[in-house]
Design brief:
Layout: E1 3-9, H1 13-24, E2 31-38, E3 41-48, H2 51-57, E4 68-74, E5 89-90, E6 96-104, H3 107-116, H4 128-137, H5 142-150, E7 155-163, E8 170-175, E9 180-184, E10 187-191, E11 203-206, E12 211-215, E13 220-224, E14 227-229, E15 234-235, H6 251-257, H7 259-267, E16 271-272, E17 275-276, H8 285-290, E18 293-298, H9 300-317, E19 321-325, H10 326-329, E20 340-346, H11 352-363, E21 367-372, H12 378-382, E22 385-388, H13 401-420, H14 426-448, H15 450-459, E23 465-470, H16 473-489, E24 492-497, E25 514-519, H17 525-536, E26 541-547, E27 559-563, H18 572-589
Parallel strand pairs: 18-19, 18-20, 20-21, 21-22, 23-24, 23-25, 25-26, 26-27
Antiparallel strand pairs: 1-4, 1-10, 2-3, 2-4, 5-6, 6-7, 7-8, 8-12, 9-10, 9-11, 11-15, 12-13, 13-14, 16-17
Helix pairs in contact: 3-4, 4-5, 7-13, 7-14, 9-13, 9-16, 14-18, 15-18, 16-18
The structure holds 5-amino-5-deoxy-1-O-phosphono-D-mannitol.
5-amino-5-deoxy-1-O-phosphono-D-mannitol is lined by residues 299-302, 346-348, 351, 354, 397-399, 483, 487, 604.
Amino acid sequence: MCGIIGYIGMDQAAPILLSGLEKLEYRGYDSAGIAVHNETGIQIVKATGRLKVLYNLTQGGASILGNAGIGHTRWGTHGESTDVNAHPHFNKDTSIAVVHNGIIENYIKLKKQLEAHGYKFLSQTDTEVIVQMLDYYYNGYPLETITKIMHFIEGSYALGIIFKNHPGEIYAVCKDSSLIVGQGSRGNFIASDVPAILKYTREICYLDNEDIVRLTDSGLTFYHNEEELKKAFVTVRMDLNAAEKGSYAHFMLKEMQEQPKAIADTMNPRLRDGSIVIKELGISDNKIRQIQKIYIVACGSAYHTGVTAKYIFEGLAQIPLEVDLASEFRYRNPILDRNTLVIVVSQSGETADSLAALRKAKANGGRVLGIVNVVESSIAREADNVMYTWAGPEIAVATTKAYSAQLIALYLLALKFSQVRGFLDAEKIACMVSNLQRLPEQISLLLSHKKDIQKIAHRYLKAEHIFFIGRGIDYGIALEGSLKLKEITYVHSEAYAAGELKHGTISLIENGRLVVAVLTQPFLYSKTISNIVEVKSRGAFVMAVTNVGNTEVEKVADYVIYIPETNLYFVNSLAVIPLQLFGYYLSIGKGLDVDKPRNLAKSVTVE
Ligand code: M6R
């Protein structure tokens, strides 16, 4: 959730650290800081608020001289957003500085032990115990000291560390929290994520759990348990401009507009002459026939793709499918075997709960397929097989194009499974594939009507509660519409399976309350229409999203948004577009920072 960067080399470190932090700010943005080695020792500057505060404070880094340093952008877990709680943290004489992503779970116990040795703590963070422990055990040898404290700290961490007595070195280590190392022509880097250093190098090495790396301006040495080891570097091909906003007002707007391309890029390489070819699946047709149960495990919006996929897999491939939140799955005892497929869906590939769920699934004997957007991320590397969604870098905290690409990956899988298990013949598959191929153009059409959605959003700028209802796949769409809305507008919102509303929640419906009803499944139209009538009779204003031609809805809803015709299993991809736009326009209409909503971060690498 926090972003880490480190640089040592021929150039001034501070401007490089700040430019890296700018690319990492999506991971956390409540405060930021840098620590740079220079003649005076270690110079640390930190500031509460967005990175620009730190940028101004250091004149873009120009006021901090030195060729080696570490930086951090924070999403606080322990302690509010203050300068003191901001990273880097340091020991009493500022001879050691540390940046940390993760959570030290036994920090209270460690803190007490250190206090008993006379250590005083300045911050409320768990991170400070790391630097105080390094101070306590420091014997002049950073590698030995770091290895030693790793035996005592429990939890997850990616750390960047500098020692005043070792001015030509940076150390880094990670456990259950990812960290990359970059080798450039003018110096070496550590970072939480590739875009942070892409401007300087494409030669990347992914640290494995408990690897330690020592960086100097001319070399990199890797260790595991103090033993030196060789690590492989890969050349990343990511487009440097893909993570830029360009002429768009916001990343979210840009990413919504990129949805047609994201889904075409995810789908096209897997389509051959009207049939589905998923080479990376790594499961033979025979094995697909033997699968008895599928779990889809994920968090947030990625979980919502699973809610929709349940209906599709059960409908098309007749395989029982259970969807679970990764944070729940990881602490229960799911009954799995090699005929159980566990699909872990994640944009970042670093979500701590999803990664832990993946490990649980493997430990319990399941086979894991990752549907992941970030290439070589932890989930991608640890899954038995990985199917990438080719959405490109997603920067806005609220996911749009990655969500849409995940849906496409799941449709393709469901079609493949259905075909192999004999429920769909080649002709039906070809017909459904042609529906899939029309989605990009249909999404573009929906996006071109954004001004209409903006008008409705402006009517609801003062709404305090907004409800979303739907049945079946429409319930999955409602969940996503509601999450999108609440995370970027701070308006309270709930999504309900439409038939469930009357079991309690309908008591919250009163005059003028906005209810968004999704009706895309013809066999459920009349049922959801009854639910619309129920909320209308209690004074609700109803905005409906339905298929083109379903004009019946106009008799009961106050406002109707029509989506183009497609196969009924694929409607989510279309119906979600006006809901994303609605959230977006409500957020910017309220003057909020739509790309960086309060309290959130893009990559949730802590529990
Ligand atoms: O990176 P992941 O797909 O694993 O992230 C899962 C959720 O944190 C994410 O979808 C979150 O709910 C989004 N902010 C929703 O827009």
